[in-house]
Amino acid sequence: MATAPIVIPENDPKNPVPFPLPRLAGMDNVPPHVPKELIRSTGLPFSPEFNENPYEFFPRMHETLPPIYYDVGPMQNAWQLIKHEDAFFALRHGEYFSSASSTPFPRDPKDYFYFLPIEIDPPAHRKYRAIVDPLVNPQAVLKWEERIRTLSNQLIDAVIEKGECEFTEDFARPLPVCVFLDLMGLPQDMRDQFVTWVVQLLKNMDPAKMIGVMKEIGDYLNTAIAEKRRNPDEGMISRIVHAAPNGEPLSEKEIFGFVFFVFIAGIDTVYATLNNIWYWLARNPERRHEMIGDPGNINAQVEELLRVFSVTFSGRILKQDLELRGVKMKAGDRITSVLPACNYDPEVFPNPREVDFHRPRKPILAFAGGVHSCMGAHLARLEIKIGLQEWLRRIPDFQVKPGVDVKYVPSAVVGPEPLPLVW
Amino acid sequence: MPLVIYVEADGARHEVDVPLGENVMRGAVNNGVEGIVGECGGGLACATCHCYVDAAWADKVGGPSSDDERDMLESAAAEVRPTSRLSCQIAITPELDGLVVELPERQY
Ligand code: HEM
Ligand code: FES
């Protein structure tokens, strides 16, 4: 029986409407074209089995799963890609893979908006990145170096004498929040409030509660947007508010969805990454000393740690039928690139479990790829690098607090917390 | 502003004035030269800004500026030649006024 063709609408940023296709979930909702033998329930990323040891789970996927399979889960069903090559293909072929509907955050259908630039496909996508990229390209982020160093040291000052800290609360979360506030041109006294919002919004599995928090954050951001409209400055909000690509200013909803998404994207990703890295460092003193003994290799160290500790995924929806590695997928199917698994693809990174600071440099997928490649990648690399340099300089020896069993919390951004450390 | 001439694989030429302090990748991306993608924004993380420096300019521009660039070039999709560079690593200087770079058929 021929199925009716599925039309994935081009997201029109000037006219945001809720995405028309439902998110399928559960075994009762597997489309008939999916072959039985390709159905799996990996439990990624919310199951206890996965959260037992995520960074052993990811490399093992290459040993236990076909390269492309249909994952059935309680939140959504989707094809999953675990090969480096396949994920790059998906990320780089917007003509097949749309990022409309790629963010799961609930919005009021009567007052809908898109998260920009993530939910817009090329070519319209380009104009948004052109507004902000000059603030976050590799040269531009260098101007933040001293500031991030000062912030890192202030956070270390507050705990170093105590001989212990809860790393998430005392370092990993406040650092990216402070950097975010500076980047956006928001006052530092909003730090604790933003930390609270990050936790309430992004570590929360209940959509009903999310809506309330989103409204609170949204109200604040709207006030900030109005204030930047009156008083322009060098920050990112002001730049977005006053941008006029091809002479046309952005609409209220474009500005709001853009500013809001930078908040969603730029904080818990960084802190989960820091938590993963520090958890590993705390348990591997000899590797810590190797890093400290080779300060000139810090960039390669950061890149390798990002490879083995990638924290997030990339969701797309197929616009047209596509056959990949013999697997026939159909328009309307959801696709998830399991980026952390792709970074353990043995075909690209031989001996993938080994943390090797002298690997030849290759494209990693921690920040995805293609047009939606992470906007904040260079800033994030800098935060990780400076965080490592300052922490290892001042607290070279530390370990997980004895008796504490560090756990991974179910989240779309993978990281352990809390992480109590002692030195 | 130094002039950079980008020659696409199909022979199309783009003459672009690129400000000092910019790099050859951004000169292309900011001016609609499609043969360069530059998806990582110049972070030596994507190898989608591959170019061939014109033979007459090869000495002046020089080879890869770091081991990272040399490694990353191996991930380029098109054939790598002795004059291959990642264009995000070529900074625009007054000496490079008139630079000619050829672009490969594909970047991924
Ligand atoms: C280690 C930290 C980070 C990681 C692992 C990370 C990861 C990612 C990934 C995987 C994507 C692509 C998503 C997709 O294609 O579906 C992305 C996009 C994005 N990230 Fe990041 N990110 C990090 C830090 C940041 C920071 C610090 C910011 C902002 C200050 C940021 C802002 C963005 C934005 C705006 C996008 C959307 C880009 C677009 O659609 O063009 N990220 N990030
Ligand atoms: S732009 Fe990515 S390596 Fe040059």
Write the layout of secondary structure elements.
The complex is a heterodimer of chains A (423) and B (108).
Chain A: E1 39-40, H1 48-52, H2 54-64, E2 68-71, E3 78-81, H3 84-92, E4 97-98, H4 125-136, H5 138-141, H6 145-160, E5 164-166, H7 167-172, H8 174-184, H9 191-202, H10 207-230, H11 236-241, H12 252-266, H13 268-283, H14 285-292, H15 298-308, E6 314-318, E7 322-324, E8 327-329, E9 334-337, H16 339-342, H17 377-394, E10 399-400, E11 420-422
Parallel strand pairs in A: 1-2, 3-9
Antiparallel strand pairs in A: 2-3, 4-6, 5-11, 6-9, 7-8, 10-11
Helix pairs in contact in A: 6-8, 6-17, 8-9, 9-10, 10-12, 15-17
Chain B: E1 3-7, E2 13-17, H1 24-29, E3 50-53, H2 58-61, H3 67-73, E4 84-86, E5 99-102
Parallel strand pairs in B: 1-5
Antiparallel strand pairs in B: 1-2, 3-4, 3-5
Bound molecules: protoporphyrin IX containing FE (HEM) and FE2/S2 (inorganic) cluster.
Protoporphyrin IX containing FE binds next to α12, α13 and α17 of chain A.
Overall description:
The complex is a heterodimer of chains A (423) and B (108). Chain A has a six-stranded mixed β-sheet, covered by helices on one side. A three-stranded antiparallel β-sheet of chain A has the order 5-11-10. Chain A is 44% helix and 8% strand. Chain A is built from 17 helices and eleven strands. Chain A is an alpha+beta fold and 423 residues long. The radius of gyration of chain A is 21 Å and the shape is globular. Chain A has one domain: Cytochrome p450, CATH 1.10.630. Chain B has a single domain, classed as Ubiquitin-like (UB roll) (Roll). Chain B is globular. Chain B has a five-stranded mixed β-sheet with strand order 2-1-5-3-4. Chain B contains three helices and five strands. Chain B has 108 residues and is α+β, with helices and mostly antiparallel strands. The termini of chain B are far apart. The structure holds protoporphyrin IX containing FE and FE2/S2 (inorganic) cluster. Protoporphyrin IX containing FE binds next to α12, α13 and α17 of chain A.
